[in-house]
Amino acid sequence: MPDCDSHRVRGGQVKRQLIAGVAVAATASAGAYLLVPEASGHGLERASYETAAKTDVCPAAKRQMRGMWIATTQNIDWPSKAGLSPATQRAEYVRMLDTAAARGINAVFLQVRPASDAIYKSSLEPWSQYLSGKAGKNPGWDPLPFLISEAHKRGMEFHAWFNPYRAAYSDNIAALPANHPARQHPGWVVKHEGRLYYNPGLPSVRDHVTKVIMDVVNRYDIDGVHFDDYFYPYPGQGTKFNDTAAYNKYGEGRSLANWRRANVNQLVAQVDKAVHRAKPYLKFGISPFGIWRNKSNDPAGSKTNGMSAYDAIYADPKAWIKAGTVDYLTPQLYWNRGFAAADYDVLVPWWANAVKGSGVDLYIGQALYQIGTGGAWNRPNEIPSHLAVNKRYPEVKGDVYFSAKQVVQNPLKVMTRIDEDYYKRPALLPLIKGLPTRPLGPVKNLRNAGGTLTWTGVPGARAYAVYRGSGNSCELVAVTTRSSFRTRANGAYQVTSLDRLYNESRPVSARVG
Asked: How far apart are CA 328 and CA 284, in angstroms?
């Protein structure tokens, strides 16, 4: 996603995409939340778990990822600027989540590590400058427990988003905080076009990145680990990335390109294994650049004519799918329908086919930040029409929007259109094959008191699903974190408990009226 690396964000969040080698400007607080209005192949660590949910009430089209990215780098989304008080930072976040909940969002992907810095208390890397205004300065609180808790209060998943290889936006190592890994281990980094990058070819770098991630996994109640699209640096000024010494030491006769891809694949596999060994229920996913390869370079590629992740930044999502080292992919399809070099209508079926039968979930990264920047992006129905395309492919299990700021601002009322046309009903999060499927017990003491359903909460429940109707002749009307639901419509109702992965319990029924 565009966070001021080789995809530059300026002014109105205009992203510069590399197409055919040319840069083109493509231009309700804590408590319970009804997410829409009520009136409308891993290893042995997970092999012992069941592979299918026991219960799925009203299964038709009720599970969908509806996520948003929250970028902290450059203060794109949160906090709105550096140096705000903890109270102001908390208030901004609560307002953002309240609006997101009202717009149907059920998952957030928050950037906890923009550039080898931390939006949380860490003994491994310095505090992020985007909190206090100065790299390494304690902001006066640890935001992460609050950020996670507020998402969970609204029935949202919280995915911790890490940039694995960016070390600093400046190549001046001496200016970094004393505890910055690049100062402590200058041999880990490569100076490249004014910035510092960790060298993906070094085992010590892969170990450090994994250690940072596992520190968060072990200390915080996150729901997932997430990588963005930055691996080896994007093509910029054409400067050679100077990893020659590492290649000479570790290349083992492979071509430079194959060695670089193997380095990335190795990190992905290493993180996947460590995350699921520690907490088998966590999700690990990546949001790759939207073009794997072009058909002109590879018969298996897409009918596109743009920069390719495989060739330019040495990211190979098809390898991750084949190896089963990711739970989901969220390719950034940041181009409009009909765009000649990278047509949305071409790329969605390509990605759907890539994951078909693999057990890897597919969500589409949507360029909400592009709305209003010109051309096709001035059409209020551009992104809503993307969701219509997605419905043709059962492999597409939802969307993630970049970024939170636009979800709140609702440019050209696009989120309103999406809510009215596609998010009229709430959605449970998709169940990913291979993750634990052990539903909680059912709710108890379900009763109707004058149009308000109440029940006794279930220990460990993330939320509750409320259905109107009986059997499979029903519809999901609410996802709530409370043990009650107010309705004005008479009829049969069913309530299920949801665990943290949104596995459902056996339904319990009651009648209103």
From this structure: 7
Instruction: Determine the Cα–Cα distance for residues 311 and 315; give it in Å rounded to an integer.
Output: 8
Same fold, 65-423 and 444-512: no
Provide the residue ranges of all domains of the chain, joining segments of one domain with +: 65-423, 444-512
Q: Which fold has domain 65-423?
A: TIM Barrel (3.20.20)
Please name the residues in contact with 175: beta carbons below 8 A apart, sequence gap of 6 or more: none
The end-to-end CA distance of the chain, in Å, is 50
**Adjacent-strand bridge partners of 225:** 160, 284
Both structure tokens of 316: 């190979």
Residues 6+ away with beta carbon under 8 Å from 6 = 18, 233, 234, 235, 236
Q: Which residue has the higher pLDDT, 237 or 49?
A: 237
Contact 160, 225 (CB under 8 A): yes
**Planar angle of CA 155, 381, 417, nearest 5 degrees:** 40
Tell me the backbone φ, ψ of residue 153, rounded to 5 degrees.
-60, -25
* Nearest residue to 237 via CA among 23, 73, 15: 23
Helix (H) or strand (E) segment spanning residue 46? helix 44-47
C-beta pairs of 240-244 under 8 Å, 24+ apart in sequence: 241/190, 241/192, 241/197, 242/190, 242/191, 242/192, 243/190, 243/199, 243/200, 243/201
What is the C-alpha to C-alpha distance for residues 228 and 110, in angstroms, rounded to an integer? 11
231 and 261 in contact (C-beta within 8 Å)?
A: no
- CA–CA gap between residue 304 and residue 350 (Å, rounded): 11
The architecture that CATH gives domain 444-512 is Sandwich (2.60)
**Predicted confidence (pLDDT) per residue in 383-401, tens digit:** 999 999 999 999 999 999 9
Cα separation, 240 vs 250, in Å, equals 18
Scanning the structure block, which residue is given the tokens 């390869």?
Answer: 293
Pick from 446, 448, 466, 463: which is nearest to 500 by CA?
463
Q: What's the DSSP call for residue 233? A: P
Q: What percent of the chain has pLDDT over 90?
A: 87
Coil vs helix vs strand at 310: helix
Tens-digit pLDDT profile for residues 119-132 = 999 999 999 999 99
Degrees, nearest 5: CA angle 111-97-475: 115
Nearest-angstrom CA–CA distance, 224 and 484: 28
